[in-house]
Amino acid sequence: MEKRMPVVVIRQIGETDTILRALQEYGIHCEEITFRTPCAEEALAYACKDYPQMLIGAGTIINGDQCRRALAAGAKFIVSPGFSEEAAAVCREQNVAYYPGCVTPTEIMKALEWGITTVKFFPAEVYGGLKGMKALSAPFPQVRFIPTGGVNAENMKEYLAFEKTAAVGGSFLVDEALKQAAVSADSPARGKERPFAPTAGKGKE
């Protein structure tokens, strides 16, 4: 898993290439495509087939049926906003990584009972942000977090500095990648390597 995991929302299938190419140019090769738009399943299947060099998973999976469909489309991992026992069971059967949303001790204990030690911390800022993660790490030192929701370009480095952060997620990474792609397209220096230097982003998922 990379340290940056964009939350990709594709509302029209034609956006898929634009977004994934921008992410690649931005140096990101791991992302979750959310399963919450009418074309999500189609976009996921297209992305997994045409971008095999990228680690593409499905996000916003809330039940077993969605999980099966996402995996059939080619998803390499599954992310949920909460804990779905149905999705956990499907992922266990198919030996696929499952990252459920867990923000309380009870939810984390449930994840551990399923053998899951990396969880999505969502919405991060609502549930205490980095302070909340650190507090939960005391009784659960084996757990790693993927904070999403309120994470942005301004606080991303602070989250990543915490040793229990597996990765940070958010749609702000897509926004930053698209901005850089637009600048590159207009620059005579297009094609040269550009350093990772995100600008301030909004606190969206």
Q: How does the SSE layout of this entry go?
A:
Elements: E1 4-8, H1 15-25, E2 30-34, H2 40-50, E3 55-59, H3 64-72, E4 77-79, H4 85-94, E5 97-99, H5 105-113, E6 118-121, H6 129-137, E7 144-147, H7 156-160, E8 168-170, H8 172-186
Description:
The chain is of the alpha/beta class and 205 residues long. The protein has 8 helices and 8 strands. The protein has helices at 15-25, 40-50, 64-72, 85-94, 105-113, 129-137, 156-160, 172-186; strands spanning 4-8, 30-34, 55-59, 77-79, 97-99, 118-121, 144-147, 168-170. It has a 4-stranded parallel sheet with strand order 3-2-1-8. Helix 6 links the parallel strand 6 and strand 7. Helix 1 packs across helix 8 (172-186) and helix 3 packs parallel to helix 4 (85-94). The radius of gyration is 17 Å and the shape is globular.
Provide tags for this entry.
alpha/beta, 8 helices, four-stranded parallel sheet, 205 residues, 16% strand, two-stranded parallel sheet, globular, disordered C terminus
Return the structural class. Answer: alpha/beta
Q: Summarize the main sheet.
A: 4 strands, parallel
Q: What share of the residues does DSSP label as strand, in percent?
A: 15-25%
The unreliable regions are 191-203
Shape: globular
